Amino acid sequence: MLLIDKIAYENRLIELSPGVKSIFYLCLLALCFLAAPIIQVVISVIVGAVTVYVAKVKVKRYLKWLLVPAPFLVISILTILFSISSNSNGFIFDISVFHHFIGITESSLHLGVRLFFRSASCVICTYFFILTVPFHQLLLVMKKAHLPALLIELTMLMYRFIFIFAEEFLIIKRAQDMRFGFKGIRNSYQSLGVLIKILFFQTFDRFNKMILSLEMKFFEGDFPL
């Protein structure tokens, strides 16, 4: 069981209706999209503190989890902040490169700031949801919302294969570490290539075994939900 999944099953709000938590989460997302940056900051601080308490996680670990989507957020903001033009008019900061100017305009800075606070607050609210709603409760919510059965089944299968992928990765990685496979840059690249190759074949092998086991149980194409 993944650590995040384990925390979701042991959080302080486990007895609360998943429907209530889902509605609360959607309302928070709507508020984060529509509110001003100062309101988004307040929501982030409050929801973050509540998540740490409810999920019973350490602040340091929680902050590390928040850094996971940070590279994607930074790349998105940088593409919005910087513009390229043949003249420097309108830039509040610019750099000349090959007779062109790369810089930041007042409007792009304003948009980048709004995007940062909006994205950060939505991520924090999402962490609250995934750390307080176990996967089986999420499936119940999806079913009560009358979402297509195919979508629910695909979600369940994707969730299952996350565990398969993570389990196989840890087994292979542990075996390579015991043989000092990641000692040195050259060995690290070779071990990484072998890991990806074996992981690809092992995942497909586990998938075939799962299909075989379902056929032995007279699987007819529909999972009971």
UniProtKB/TrEMBL annotation:
It is a multi-pass membrane protein. CDD domains: EcfT (cd16914). It is found in: Cell membrane. The keyword Transmembrane helix applies. The chain crosses the membrane at residues 23-53, 65-84, 116-135, 147-166. It holds the Pfam family CbiQ. Keywords: Cell membrane, Membrane, Transmembrane, Transmembrane helix. It comes from the Bacteria. GO terms for cellular component: ATP-binding cassette (ABC) transporter complex. GO terms for biological process: cobalt ion transport. Its main location: membrane. This is Cobalt ABC transporter, permease CbiQ. It comes from Enterococcus malodoratus ATCC 43197.
